[in-house]
Amino acid sequence: MPGRPAASRRTVLRGVALTSVAGLGLTACGAPEERPAPPTGPVELGAESEIAPGSTKLFRDHNIVVSRGADDSFTAYSTVCTHASCAIGKLEGTKLICPCHGSEFDATTGKVLREPAVAPLTPLSVDVRNGTIVAGPQA
Questions:
Q1: Is the pLDDT confidence value at 98 over 90?
Q2: Cβ neighbours around 65 below 10 Å, total
Q3: Range name among 2-16, 82-96, 118-132 with the lowest pLDDT average
Q4: Taken in order 137, 78, 80, 115, is the CA torsion positive or negative?
Q5: Does residue 37 contact residue 43 with C-beta atoms inside 8 Å?
Q6: Higher-confidence residue: 27 or 126?
Q7: CA–CA gap between residue 67 and residue 124 (Å, rounded)
Q8: Rg of the chain over all Cα atoms, to the nearest angstrom
Q9: Whether 77 contacts 119, CB under 8 Å
Q10: How many other CB atoms are found less than 10 A from the CB of residue 57?
């Protein structure tokens, strides 16, 4: 066809490379189809005896972490990361580690230990009812 030059091999390859890189970028930073959510009401988590004084337990199915102080007091936080709303599924001692971008949080205080998150975890109310730990949104 006269008047329309053919694309060079270099132009075609550059277009393919840029399309691939753009696709990877969108996949890495795109919003997941279904975002985890903190509890919307009280949730029964398990027996009080499951958490020894001075320890912490992650309840992945409910996106909640509960810590029990040496004085038998309980604290609870949502484990939905405040940076990109990813479910935090890794607990090392009292440190929560987000798999999406590496944010780290103190499970006993909710404070950020490592960015990119800058906001602390959302605190939840926690109570023990008839030996069962119950946690949910703060009133």
A1: yes
A2: 26
A3: 2-16
A4: positive
A5: no
A6: 126
A7: 12
A8: 23
A9: no
A10: 17
